[in-house]
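Our preliminary data section would be incomplete without showing what the modeling component actually yields. Below, a chain of 139 amino acids is followed by its predicted structure, encoded as tokens that our downstream tools consume directly.
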Amino acid sequence: MARILVVDDDERIRTTFRMLLEGAGYEVEEAHDGNAAMKCFAQCRVDLAITDILMPEKDGIEVMLAIRRMVPRVKVLAISGGGRIEPSFYLTMAKHLGADAVLVKPVDKETLLKTVASLLEGTGVQQDRPPVVPQNSSS
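Predicted structure:
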């Protein structure tokens, strides 16, 4: 089963992502900032890190670069809602520095689950069951 580390200083986002990802069959670890993420990353095997870019202490770019140095095989999904400037600036920078994928907040559940499944497909991670992607019933 794939293990995902969700790093975001917003508890509501961490909780929402945890519920969606666990509902899709993934194991989820949470970290409230980059320093907590590094402690968690050092203590457990992680297949994918989802990290916000703008956080206090250690930001998502620093987290991503540290993960790349420690275990290059781990996939990284960078997310941002922006700050003083548009989120696209931060996400473009994250992509150039090694993020495997980027998403703008707010992230809808279907996009999140599809992106996570796509990133984990090429890693050889065995899952107990394939992720369930909810179908949009308003078709």
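The radius of gyration is 14 Å. The first helix runs from residue 11 to 23. Preliminary results of this kind motivate Aim 1 of the renewal.
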